[in-house]
Amino acid sequence: MICRQLASILFAAGLTIGPQETRAYDMDCAIMLCMAGNFPSSAVCSAAYAEMIRRITPWPSRPPFGVCTYAAAPVALGGQGGEEALDISSSDYDWLRRTRVLWWRGRTYERREEPRQWDWSVRSCDHEIQGCQYIVRVYGSHKPWPASFTSANNQNLPTPKYGGFRSFYGSAVMMEYSDYQGTLDYTDWVQY
Q1: Of the residues 122, 144, 167, 173, which has the maximum number of CB atoms within 10 A of its CB?
Q2: What is the pTM of this model?
Q3: Rounded to whole angstroms, how far apart are CA atoms 158 and 151?
């Protein structure tokens, strides 16, 4: 009898205390959270990574992430967020502000009776697609572009892989970012 009473009390308490409704984050928050963990393998982070790359790929490009707002009610991933924005201006978010979007353009060609030449450049912009600058610009080189270059964050990054025997032109975009501990990483080059 006491066991039944205890069970019914616990059951009733469970109904009134039950788990709180969980709240989702909008896509910008998902991108930031996944970036903080170096995009761990999960459905949410895969979707966040794909959305981030989609944003930086077209020209003119959009920033890889925007304002992170906590959703006021549960929303589907990528749904509308809440009204309060996450303030990333504090030193706690230095790692996030190190995010850079890099555009690579290159071409190789031969002019009549001249040796093959290579032109290539890397343009780097901050996470808001502002503060853009060329970190490398080479024109008319008689040597192919190198296998890697040094970014604005002093990270050694690979150059996109392109080939071609005659004339060739290519462009690609990538992101350089750090996790919450400040460890730098980068995405693959996306050719467009």
Answers
A1: 122
A2: 0.74
A3: 10
